[in-house]
Task: inverse folding
């Protein structure tokens, strides 16, 4: 069998293994090892390649940014900054029908600017926003849907772990990717808020809720209290993003500064206990090791594909097929969205980018713009069944005693997945939205 045939056979075998329940990283490493063994007919070569992949894949200084941003995001969650942000946003938008939904989107957007983790956003705002929205008459389906939908802002608005991962895989500047996500992130937040207003006007039965007239206003905050709650957020955003964009920090240094800033804030607010501190450290280790294991598997798989000659064969096929750049991009994005129904975000990128990027690079596609498109497409998968990791996080946070079902959450998140798809189309048609600030 030819090298290209072996590569395609490995892709088919991978889908079978993943659907059977095998972890993506394990499937990548196993099939890469077997693929190299078959291609070279030598067990020792395959073993040496496996050792080199484990040694070289995550030894770069840039990979230090992963645990640092994860640590910062988890410390921010422990400090209660998400709750403070929601309370300020809720009071700001209380005069609007659907205002608590808009407040959830706004708070998630701000929270995303200091965490970069969608799962953290989903967990925090499920605890904070869902009970408050239900108490004010919003339907449970809308309450959980808006939390799941807006949590994906954490991977688009910088800093973002997916942009870091994309930058590592494609050798693009992480700082440039962060900047590229600003306008699309603002656009998505605006579309969400506009969509909620439209649903409040033409589909009130879906969202429920009530305006300020029926609120208990005895708990309203003064301007000084609102400023006190929002100040830590502004400090962290200025420290992390201002440091990167101003050229004072590399992304890794910004992650370290942000982690330290989040620690100081959580201590100042007296919300960090020894138990929660240990839990944050353990969860940071689990998340980091999972990401690094996936990166190692993807690195090994990329080397196997390069050895098989598949990227070059696909490039020639694309050129002779007359699909054009747009056809290739649309095909890639559709595959990414479909994979989102069964895989997590990082796994999707690690499976598709080693195959797609060499082809798209030869066609002259702007890889920064491509990064924004891929992240948007990947994040749609967080809201789509049957996997929909953001939906499962919301359900797990609600607990088994909650009457809200997975079906309710998927149904509530569906309008937000549709709005995200609209933003994907807009960014695809107007690439300057991703590149104008760079």
Result:
């Amino acid at each position: 069998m030819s090298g290209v045939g072996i590569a395609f056979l490995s892709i088919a075998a991978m889908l079978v293994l993943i659907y059977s329940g095998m972890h993506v990283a394990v499937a990548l490493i196993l099939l890469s090892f077997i693929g190299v063994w078959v291609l070279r007919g030598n067990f020792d070569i395959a073993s040496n390649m496996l050792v080199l992949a484990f040694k070289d894949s995550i030894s770069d200084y840039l990979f230090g940014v992963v645990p640092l941003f994860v640590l910062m995001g988890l410390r921010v969650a422990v400090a209660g900054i998400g709750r403070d942000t929601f309370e300020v946003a809720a009071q700001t938008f209380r005069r609007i029908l659907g205002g608590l939904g808009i407040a959830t989107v706004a708070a998630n957007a701000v929270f995303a600017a200091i965490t970069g983790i969608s799962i953290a956003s989903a967990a925090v705002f499920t605890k904070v926003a869902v009970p408050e929205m239900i108490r004010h008459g919003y339907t449970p389906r809308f309450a959980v849907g808006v939390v799941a939908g807006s949590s994906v802002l954490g991977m688009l608005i910088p800093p973002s772990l997916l942009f870091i991962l994309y930058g590592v895989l494609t050798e693009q500047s992480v700082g440039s990717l962060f900047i590229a996500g600003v306008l699309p992130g603002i656009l998505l937040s605006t579309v969400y808020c506009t969509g909620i207003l439209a649903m409040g006007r033409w589909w009130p039965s879906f969202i429920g809720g009530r305006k300020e007239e029926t609120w208990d206003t005895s708990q309203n905050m003064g301007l000084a209290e609102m400023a006190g709650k929002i100040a830590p957020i502004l400090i962290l955003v200025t420290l992390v993003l201002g440091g990167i964009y101003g050229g004072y920090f590399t992304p890794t240094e910004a992650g370290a500064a942000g982690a330290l800033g989040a620690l100081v804030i959580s201590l100042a607010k007296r919300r960090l206990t020894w138990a929660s501190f240990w839990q944050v450290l353990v969860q940071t280790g689990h998340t980091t090791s999972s990401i690094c294991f996936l990166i190692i598997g993807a690195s090994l798989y990329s080397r196997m594909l390069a050895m098989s000659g598949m990227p070059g064969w696909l490039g020639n096929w694309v050129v002779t097929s007359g699909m054009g750049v747009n056809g290739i991009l649309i095909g890639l994005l559709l595959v990414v969205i479909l994979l989102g129904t069964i895989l997590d975000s990082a796994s999707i990128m690690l499976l598709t980018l080693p195959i797609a990027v060499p082809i798209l690079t030869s066609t002259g596609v702007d890889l920064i713009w491509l990064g924004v498109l891929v992240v948007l497409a990947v994040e749609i998968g967080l809201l789509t069944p049957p996997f929909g990791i953001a939906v499962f996080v919301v359900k797990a946070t609600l607990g088994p005693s909650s009457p809200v079902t997975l079906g309710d959450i998927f149904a509530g998140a569906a309008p937000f997945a549709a709005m995200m798809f609209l933003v994907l189309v807009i960014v695809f048609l107007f690439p300057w939205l991703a590149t104008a600030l760079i």
Summary: Residues 274-308 form the longest helix (35 residues). The chain has one domain: 3-435.
